[in-house]
Amino acid sequence: MSMDLSGFVKQKTKITIGTKEFIFSELTLRDLAEFRGDMTKKRKEINQERRNRLIEDAKKIGNVDPLTILKFSDEPVSEEEVEAEMETIEGLGYLAYLSLRPNHTGISKEEALGIISPRVIEKISAAMFPTMEDKPKKKPARKTKP
Fold first, then answer.
1. Is residue 40 part of a domain?
2. What does the pLDDT read at residue 106?
3. CB neighbours of 18 closer than 8 A, spacing ≥ 6?
4. What pTM does this model have?
5. Is there a domain that residue 111 lies in?
6. What does residue 20 show for φ and ψ, rounded to 5 degrees?
7. Percent of the chain scored above 70 by pLDDT?
């Protein structure tokens, strides 16, 4: 039985960039899993190329066991690598794409990357990763005298 998530509403933040208004949605674990999955896929492709080169190099050298070398090339993506990637220009662009996608259907990763400038990076990051501190604080209700 699936859970009804209709009551869950992502926090949305409107940010004006140039003359256009964009709505950034809070990122969810699903978005972050997609980001990590994309990193893992890219890593596998790079590792396969590396594996092929290592096997060829081991054959040329002759006295090296390719399996010994290969185990060093098959490391999974670590949390540190994911966090480091999130801080790169490409990583931030991908996260912005994931944040914009629900409200700007049809936006591409390249378009999302193209609207980000150093001037708005902090606003966009705060919109994608809101904290309790970002929410406006309610003023305490005034006590009326009896």
1. yes
2. 93
3. 115
4. 0.71
5. yes
6. -115, 145
7. 79
User: Per the structure, how many domains does the chain have?
Assistant: 1
> Is 141 within the bounds of a domain?
no
The reply to whether 115 falls in a domain is yes
DSSP state string for 46-67: HHHHHHHHHHHHHHHHSSS-HH
Domain limits at 122?
A: 12-132
Helix (H, G, I), strand (E, B) or coil at 23: strand
What is the full DSSP assignment across 63-100? SS-HHHHHHHH-PPPPHHHHHHHHTSHHHHHHHHHHHH
Indicate whether 137 pLDDT > 90: no
- Among 6, 48, 38, 20, residue whose Cα is nearest residue 107: 20
Angle CA 134–97–49, to nearest 5: 125
Instruction: Give residues with Cβ within 8 angstroms of 130, minimum separation 6.
Output: 11, 13, 26
HSE-up of residue 138 (Cα within 13 Å, Cβ side): 3
